[in-house]
Amino acid sequence: MNLAAPTPLIHPSRELRDTCAVVGAGTSRLGRVPGVSSLDLLVEAIRNALDDAGLKASDVDGVLCRGPDESYSHHQLVAERLGINASFSTTLTNGGASQIMSVALAVMAIRFGLAKTIVCGFGRDTWSRTHANEEARVRNETRPASLLPREFGPEYGYFGATAAHGLGATRHMHLYGTTRDHFAEIALAFREHALRNPAAQMKKPLTFEDYHAARLIVAPFGMFDCSLRSDAAGAVIVTSADRAKDLKQPPVLIKGFGTHNNTRGWFNNDNMVVTAARQSGEAAYRMAGLGPADVDTAQIYDCFTYMVLTQLEDYGFCKKGEGGPFVASGALRLGGALPCNTSGGQLSESHAEGMLQIVEGVRQMRRTYPAERQVKNAEIALVSGHGGNQVCHSTLILGRA
Amino acid sequence: MTETRPKPKPRPAPESLPYWEAAREHRLTLPRCKSCQNFWFPPSRTCPHCLSADLAFENVSGRGKIYSFVTFHRVYHPAFEAEVPYVVALVELEEGPRLLTNILGVSHEEVHCEMAVEVVFDDVDETTSIPKFRPRL
Lengths: 401, 137
What we know:
The complex is a heterodimer of chains A (401) and B (137). Chain A has 401 residues and is an alpha/beta fold. Chain A has helices at 38-53, 74-82, 98-111, 126-130, 134-139, 160-176, 180-194, 208-213, 241-244, 277-288, 305-314, 323-328, 345-348, 355-366; strands at 20-27, 62-66, 88-91, 117-125, 216-219, 221-222, 231-240, 252-261, 297-299, 380-387, 392-400. Helix content of chain A is 34%, strand content 18%. In chain A, helix 7 packs across helix 11. With 137 residues, chain B is mostly beta strands. In chain B, 36% of the residues are buried. Chain A binds chain B through residues 1-4, 138-141, 150-160, 162-163, 166-168, 170-171, 174, 215-221, 264, 267-268, 272, and chain B through 7-13, 16, 20, 39-42, 48-49, 67-78, 80, 83, 85-86, 88, 90, 92, 96-102, 112-114, 124, 130, 132.
């Protein structure tokens, strides 16, 4: 079903460019962390981000986070654990686009004086939740039963995000000749990056043969096309660029951001092959005064291999339909034309719904990694967030001060 | 599995009831706007094309083509254990809207995008019939 005309691009104000910086970044333990709630994982990541920034919890006057789907006013629980009152705080609920949106909201709040220093973070206990018992393992579902579809899906045996994104992958393969070999290269590149990251959940090399020998989950996706089930959290500390100058870490400037939701629906128009990364990215580029050619490293929301491929097209790193040949060129590898998901991504590092991509973008901009993990001479990082009912998107552009 | 679990039946939202009542009579219907004449899916009480609340469920052709599809190899629900691998397709009807469905009467290896299909009704019990599709000759 086609609904109305294409959405026009928006022109966000450039006044916000470089007004704020990320001054701290942290993660929790990643992977299988049984017996620890998502809230405690998030607090662990925030504590590490504060240490990284050389700040105390009492220096923070804002909390922006997302909670588990069944949570209520999750930010209040987070601030309570931190032992602080918060001038500006709320819980965002826009799926995997929430994490970048929280950074965007922090910039706006700080720029207009509603808070001085805001912590943004997200934690999840998805490995524990999907391995609690045999039924949970079979369902492989993170949402509580009360939030799952009741019709137009389950009666056909249609369950889960793998199938939803797989429909997009099949359509893209049909239209553009994209193949599973292209998807394999994405999985292999990110696994190779994860092997350089001691904190990554996946520790074993992945070969082309392994990829094709793995069991199919929901074709065209096999096991290695799917992101990890993880217990994982990440957090960043945002403050004004002025205040950032006096802090412990080299500040990483927030140069631009954008969001867009294709809320007309994943099944409608051409939304499953041209994602909201297009409008979201264009807004971020315009705010930053930059374009795809300026980006040195991309940290792309990789819930499934295919979603990386289509977002690379939608962000303008290659033309629509040419994502397959683009990734096959080796562009995504460290040392390639556009090193992507350099910590291993959600396919191989850990899955915290885009939060770890923000952390990795910040770390790449600091250039403090050992040479084998560092994108050489990196000045600009693009980070993406995607999710919800496959339709929400957000983009963050970071740069060195 | 030690017991056979029944497949989930649709639990209709109030605005979807006319769709399922028609399906029980082996009629495929879609909400259609009396103001702008457009069809849409899934059912809602206002037209997503023009926001009119003046609508009726109308019989549609039941013909369409496969826009996209996936093949389930993993069992997410015990009731589908005997079915894997099975296809879930998004069928674009001639009237425009796209419906999730199963494709019957063809092996999963033969299903492809743009395949012409037509509706058939799967009577799961005395109260519920589920629209599914098969290749159109």
